[in-house]
């Protein structure tokens, strides 16, 4: 009889300890979820701020602050035909990852 009571008490204590360990893990999971939500919100805020800075009005303001402005003297229009005062999209540009080699014409 004493053996049965001892086994029941030991089982109850082991279940109590297991419950405590699981509760601690639950708190850690909640803390990590909260931190993850905060990081996700910060990411969205930074993304929105970046999008606002890339808008035409903001780009115009920042270029004006740097002393830059539109060049109204000559229009450089990119067209598919090679008419006067126009250029092809690839004129003067090299493909990505390739550099011009001096003296070879390539």
- Termini separation (Å)? 97 Å
Q: Can you summarize the main beta sheet?
A: 2 strands, parallel
Give the integer mean of the pLDDT values.
Answer: 81
Q: Write down the Rg.
A: 34 Å
- β-strand amount: under 5%
Spell out the helices and strands N to C. HHEE
Number of extended strands = 2
Which secondary-structure class do the elements indicate? mainly alpha
Shape verdict: elongated
Q: How many helices does DSSP assign?
A: 2
Helix content: 55-70%
Uncertain regions spanning at least 5 consecutive residues: none
Biggest sheet strand order reads 1-2
Task: Provide a descriptive summary of the structure in words.
The chain is elongated. The model has no long low-confidence stretch (mean pLDDT 81). The chain has a two-stranded parallel ribbon. With 106 residues, it is mostly helical. It is built from two helices and two strands, in the order ααββ.
């Amino acid at each position: 009889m004493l053996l049965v009571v001892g086994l029941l008490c030991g089982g109850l204590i082991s279940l109590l300890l297991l419950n405590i360990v699981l509760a601690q893990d639950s708190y850690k999971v909640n803390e990590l979820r909260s931190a993850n939500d905060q990081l996700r919100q910060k990411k969205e805020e930074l993304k929105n701020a970046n999008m606002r800075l890339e808008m035409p009005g903001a780009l115009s303001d920042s270029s004006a602050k740097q002393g830059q402005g539109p060049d109204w003297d000559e229009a450089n229009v990119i067209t598919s035909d090679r008419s006067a005062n126009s250029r092809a999209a690839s004129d003067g540009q090299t493909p990505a990852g390739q550099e011009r080699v001096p003296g070879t014409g390539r």
